[in-house]
Amino acid sequence: MTQQISATTVFAQQISRWFGARGAVLEINLELKKGEVLGFLGPNGAGKTTTMRMLTGNLAPSAGSISICGIDLLDQPKAAKQLIGYLPENPPLYRELNVDEYLALAARLHRVAKSALKKAVEQAKQRCGLNEVGKQLIGSLSRGYQQRVGIAQAIIHNPEVVILDEPTVGLDPIQIRELRTLIRELGGAHSVILCTHILPEVESVCDRVVIMHHGKSVYSGSNEALREMREGHSLQLGLRNPPPPAQLQVAGVGAVEKVTDTLFNIQFTPGADPSEALVKAAAAQGWGLYQINRQRASLEDVFVQLTQHE
Amino acid sequence: MNVMIFTLAAKELKALFAAPLAWVVLAIVQLVLAWIFLSRLDTYLLLQPQLVQLAQPPGATEVVAAPLFGSAAVLLLMAVPLLSMRLIAEERHNQTMPLLLSAPLSMTDIVVGKFIGLMLFLAALIGLSALMALSLYTGTAPDLGLLAGNLLGLLLISACYAALGLYVSCLTSHPALAAVGALGALLGLWVINLAAGSPESLLHWFSLLKHFESFNRGLIDTADIAFLVLFTVTFLALAIRRLDADRLRG
Lengths: 310, 250
What we know:
The complex is a heterodimer of chains A (310) and B (250). In chain A, β1 and β2 (22-33) form a beta hairpin. Chain A contains 10 helices and 14 strands. Chain A has helices at 48-55, 77-81, 99-109, 114-128, 143-155, 173-189, 199-205, 223-230, 275-285, 299-309, and strands at residues 8-19, 22-33, 37-41, 63-68, 71-72, 84-87, 161-165, 191-196, 208-213, 216-222, 231-239, 253-258, 263-268, 289-296. Chain B has one domain. In chain B, 79% of the residues lie in helices and 0% in strands. Chain B starts with a helix and ends with a helix. The relative contact order of chain B is 0.14. Classes of the chains: A alpha/beta (310), B mainly alpha (250). The interface between A and B is medium-sized, with 32 and 23 residues.
């Protein structure tokens, strides 16, 4: 195949998917550049998985077009699928095979040449930390290792685009960290779409973010812009000897809300962070400051914020 | 014609042998066939003195091997649904379908690959029963033409069973349901002509085992071959359509 690999690896235009009368995905646009990691965020049931299934050719879109590296997924499914590696929500594992056999099968199904097969399996195992379990039956592996086998399966043919649907489910914190490193690594040479409902996951590895809600894309932009959006305009302040709330009204402070006897939530006007002034006042007047932190919006807050904008 | 089909067929064959079910089916079918073979052989030896007095006495192949293959056709009718049930239904049940659907394979590759995998297993099973019949060589010269006709018929009719079983397996995500469904359909197609009044009735055409009868007598009838091949192709095409509809309807 001498298909020209363009810089845009995934290009989806106005894709929609209806299940009967229910619109699971409505007019989503996506564009992914080579080497980029795109985070796909949304609460459960927002249509993320349906979108991923469409992008990988598992499900036909009701409307719209998808092309992978310039190859139309609907017109030339075989050529386009060759360029995709997909880890669905539930890793598609044959429990009766051992890891080596399974990865070899996955490689052959993705048309890895016989001569390159062994190397591809070794490399995928290396990258996913599966070297010690090559001879073990997949059914006997722990959930975390099974997840890694699922990822190895998705990258074994060195695809241009790797699509991971909730890859950190069932992993312990150390494994999650390893996986994030792996995703970052993959992002260098491949394009990655990471689908999740966990915001920090996206913030730590993604370049760009798309947020879905009720089948629609409610936000699409860079990770930095999202981060700024998350920087809320409130502080949490812990004081051992709190003054009357009125004294906390230094420059820029709006509403003061008492959480407990010693803990206050302080709203401030955007751009006028009163942290410094508050610390100075606390030191000068002996309020017994033991905690001050900027409160960041959670995913839910961001959703509320975004959906209210509509 | 397509490497991927054989990759998939090999995977399917391996999966069959990895599970105990296929071995048990293989063992039981062989055991029952061996029992029938021995009892027919006994009958033949008992009747042989009387048979030689006939003008054209039937040979050992006709008395021993033909009924053996006749029984094999019925046994396979019951055994194939147990083997075909997991082809698609189990992939769905274990949620492994996305591996095949996201790989550069067409639905045709998937269906034909799985079908060939199962057929390789059935060919091995039929081959073993052929060895049983060939053991007649130790006592007499068997009628090879009759044997070949029977084997061809057996292969063609088990292809029908496998194709129908594969189609039913596409309809559900419960392997057991696929087995019962396929068995029901095959039994229905076996007895469908019982109600037929006249021998000219169209119902005889739809009886699968009826099409095996000529092979069983050593006749190779192109009409029967055409029917069995067409039956197989039809159900494979239906299976492909069914999987495509899944992708479209979700």
